[in-house]
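Review this today:
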Amino acid sequence: MELKDIEQLYLHRQSCRAFDPDRPVSDELLTEICRLALLAPSACNSQPWKLLAVTGEKTKELAAGVQDLGMNKFASDAPAFVVVLEGTGNLSATVGSRFKNTDFLHNDIGIMTAHLVLAADAAGLSTCILGWRSEKKLREILGLPEKVRIPHIVAVGYAAEGYEIRKKKRKPLEDTFSLIR
């Protein structure tokens, strides 16, 4: 694999806001992208996460959990969701977080979520990480205890026909990167 291959993946992956509601995502493909995401590194290999892949009729209920105040209307067309549940770090990671005043748990979950959306893109799927959500409503829909945190929910599906990849708009490299010797 070459860096150009990775670059093409990064340039192609974007937050999709127009899914094809008539094209389901197979359970096998959802399982595979989740398996790949779970290869992500974590502090002290604590793997402080659990993934729930949701398809079928339950997706309509989940969409309602991310659409308060008229947000994320497109989520109603997503044929699948991956719900990221916050677990606990192992003893080494938890102690390290407190000792170094660093949030390893949420860093790790973010890294794993990035792996998830990149694996989905490599598989021909589109995704959108939905920040606007009602954790309370999502927990009720999924029958999860109140103490369970849901740091991310990812809409997954095939982009609607005609949905175009947008050119990435990024700050100039010199504004966001320095090389120190």
